[in-house]
Design brief:
binds pyridoxal-5'-phosphate; two-stranded antiparallel ribbon; alpha/beta; seven-stranded mixed sheet; 12 helices; globular
Length: 366
């Protein structure tokens, strides 16, 4: 069977260095807020191209603590609106509502699945304080027009970079375009820890300080508390492992891009819509998402052929019980996407033989 994601094999590639890194931390007797986290933060900031990186416990915390920091510093307040794509993973939305801010859902572009830049300006109100773009599936969502709208209306641009570690647009890494970005190191992400992890990157020194304090109970001096903060820390073992894996990220992403190109060249089933890649650098293929109007039959066909495919995501946030107040809303593009998408196996450890099996399985669907 071609597995959707072979995490064991992904870890295996770094096995010796990961064991060394973990042993070093175990033997050091220092497990939180130490030099491994500091070193990783420095490396990751340099990699992304921002002045600051603050390690936190996971990607959701990264986003929600960014917004909380804007509230604490008076930039935003309860009831303010944040524009966000309607087809994102629910964590982007939870980060907003958890802060009692109001998500304003905007439809994506049907070709790129990224927030539709032409639909942003018309939903800006006097309460809008930010735009959260999501580099969904690993493709850059930033456009110059989005940057312009944010400047014009004085909105904070926040990037959800959970799926796009290493993605570049015009030579610049995603996670460095906005005022702040949230990153996830969930094991299945392009840069995955062996457990949970996340980070905030920013060039805003005061924001970085507030985020660091909020993530440590609201304290920057021991036993002095400026905010009612969180306990959200990237631990030393994960930081040490992430430093190892960061050094291989570009190579890993290169392999993902190669597999994607191979799929794009060889999948020729007229019933399948392939992903649209604007420029090859600007997509790191966290997911390779195709569309088919008989998606559930296709899924079954792939299963029969020994190919494990998954749906990202079956139900959009506004149709979830968690947001039942939105259940009557319609976002037709988003709903169409959720009804038709299917993610094919893709990762840095997929072999050419496995890719051929996937291609044959997709092309033989009638
Ligand atoms: C994974 C993910 C998150 C959340 O990251 P966690 O580390 O799982 O908390 C947020 N947004 C998007 C788009 C994601 O894919």
């Amino acid at each position: 069977m071609v597995k959707f994601l072979d995490i064991e094999k992904i870890t295996d590639k770094y096995s010796r260095e990961i064991h060394e890194a973990a042993s070093r931390v175990i033997d050091s007797g220092w497990y939180l807020l130490g030099k491994e986290t500091g070193m990783f933060e420095e490396k990751y900031a340099r990699y992304i191209g921002t002045e600051h990186c603050v390690g936190v416990a996971n990607g959701l915390d990264a986003l929600r603590i960014i917004l909380r920091a804007y509230i604490e510093s008076g930039v935003m307040e309860e009831g303010d609106e944040i524009i966000v794509p309607a087809n994102t993973f629910i964590a982007s939305i939870i980060a907003i509502t958890d802060n009692r801010l109001v998500p304003v859902l905007v439809e994506p572009d049907i070709n790129t699945y990224q927030i539709d830049e032409t639909k942003i300006e018309s939903v800006v109100t006097s309460k809008t304080r930010g735009v959260m773009i999501v580099h969904l599936y690993g493709q850059c969502a930033y456009t110059e027009k989005i940057g312009e709208i944010c400047r014009k209306y004085n909105l904070k641009l926040i990037e959800d970079n959970a799926q796009a570690a290493g993605c570049k647009y015009k030579g610049q890494k995603t996670g460095s375009f906005g005022d702040a970005a949230g990153h996830s190191f969930y094991p299945g992400k392009n840069l995955g820890a062996l457990g949970d992890g996340g980070a905030v990157t920013t060039n805003d020194t005061s924001l970085a300080d507030t985020v660091r304090s909020l993530a440590n109970y609201g304290s920057s001096i021991k036993y002095v508390f400026d905010y009612q903060g969180y306990n959200s820390r990237l631990d030393e073992i994960q930081a040490a492992i992430l430093s190892v894996k960061l050094s291989g990220l570009d190579q890993d992403n290169q392999r993902r891009k190669e597999v994607a190109r191979y799929y794009l060249e060889h999948i020729d089933n007229p019933g399948i819509v392939l992903p649209v890649v604007k420029d090859p650098d600007s997509h790191v293929f966290h997911l390779f998402v195709i569309r088919c109007d008989r998606r559930d039959e296709l899924l079954k066909h792939l299963q029969d052929k020994g190919v494990q495919a998954l749906i990202h995501y079956p139900v959009p946030p506004h149709k979830q019980r968690a947001y039942k107040e939105w259940n009557q809303m319609t976002h037709p593009v988003t709903e169409k996407i959720h009804n038709e998408v299917l993610s094919l196996p893709i990762s840095q450890v997929i072999t050419d033989e496995e890719a051929d099996i996937v291609i044959e399985a997709v092309n033989s669907f009638r």
